[in-house]
Amino acid sequence: MADIPSFYDTLTPMKEPGQVFDSRNYIAVPDSWYIAVSDIKGSTAAVETGQHSDVNFAAAAMIASLNNLCGGIPYQFGGDGAVALVPPEHAQTARRSLAQTRRFAREEFKLDLRVGLAPVSEVTRRGKDVRVGRYQPASTSNYAVFLGDGVDLMESSVKGRGDDSLASLAMIGDADDDGQPPDLTGLSCRWTPLRSARGKMVALVVRGDEHGRLHSDLTREAGVPALNAASLESLQARWPPKGMIREAKARKQGGSLALMTLLVGLETLVAYIFVKYKLKLGKFSAEQYRRDVLKGAVDFARSGESLALVFDCPTDRIERVRAYLDARAAKGDLQYGMHVSDHAVMTCLVTSATDDKHVHFVDGGDGGYTRAATQLKARLRVD
Predict the structure, then answer these.
(1) CA distance 68 to 183
(2) How far is CA 22 from CA 95, 147, 224, 308, in A?
(3) Given pLDDT bands bounded at 50, 70 and 90, which one contains residue 72?
(4) Domain segments of the chain as ranges
(5) Beta-carbon count within 10 A of 292 CB
(6) CA 354 to centroid of chain Cα atoms
(7) Which of 26, 77, 137, 185 could disulfide-link to 361, CB 3.0 to 4.6 Å?
């Protein structure tokens, strides 16, 4: 992986989720950089038909393709879409990579992945702000969080509900696709669904301000030490993993799916044995890797006025959480959508398992973020 971009590297890494609410930990993105966004059109319908894991995988595919192309870029996962910052020297090749990833989602999962890429200067010229922070739960894992309304404008424009001129600039055409497969090295989903250890998994998408207060209040109302989804108890392996075919599709690079499935099957069998029996080989320890996975598990996203969370909540506290949100919504402080499931799911981007270079994107079970966002959109339309 390439070095972290210099402007991003100047930021103080935020080790704890609570630090992401301090605006001093953010910096303006240089105008010369580009914003890439993706969104799965019809994700709600796809989730309803059981494709929630495909939706997560396709959203994470954009991150994998651009990260493999550019190196250690800032990125954020949103369940059915993603955001990434692209350095100017990779702008043209990034357009190709985005087009390739769009085709991958369509051909392998029958999903309509909308993608867009535009200079930050075009967003700021429209009076919008784009600031980024660096959340670093583990020493070599970096995850972006955003302030300002620039990312929101970019996302809404690519969805056809924002600035038409920006949408035109950001458009990725068929001519940008060279027909080659995207480089999705490291993208996988080998862990079993994360079963709740406290009661239920809550996926929450909120629009409003005072995210720091909200996060603190939700922690209190949920009666938990931290708003997190994964635990050592819930982090379990199985063989064959449910995501084996997805990983094979991502790695086959135009070759035989059957042969790649066999290879992934063998690799995951070895990995399963290591995890099950807590084996070590050289500097790799399966048990230490499990602990590192927990460090690199990202169960939130922050962008502008939006805050998305997935956390394990005691069953008898869920209505208390809902009542708190309803009270804040009645005052006009926020709007929200919430989905409750008995599990969460994890999609992984593993650059190196032995060097602790891996990030794990968590979403609520059965399309948690997507279902919560659908509720939020309905409330916003009513209001």
Answers:
(1) 7
(2) 33, 10, 22, 17
(3) confident
(4) 6-182, 194-382
(5) 21
(6) 22
(7) 77
pLDDT at 5: 55
For the segment 199-238, what is each residue's pLDDT rounded down to a tens digit? 999 999 999 999 999 999 999 999 999 999 999 999 999 9
Q: What fold does the segment set 6-182 form as a domain?
A: Alpha-Beta Plaits (3.30.70)
> For residue 87, how many other CB atoms are within 10 A of its CB?
19
Assess contact for 39 and 158: CB atoms under 8 A: yes
Q: Quickly tell me which residue has 């784009």 as its tokens.
A: 130
pLDDT of residue 380: 87
Q: How far apart are CA 126 and CA 169, in angstroms?
A: 13
**Can you read off the two tokens belonging to residue 7?**
């402007």
146, two tokens: 């955003």
Q: If pLDDT is split at 50, 70 and 90, which confidence band does 382 have?
A: low
What distance in Å separates the CA atoms of residue 164 and residue 256, rounded to the nearest whole number? 41
Which residue, among 83, 72, 53, has the nearest Cα to 362 in the 3D structure? 53
Distance CA 250, CA 186 (A): 9
Q: What angle, rounded to 10 degrees, do the helices at 257-276 and 244-251 form?
A: 130
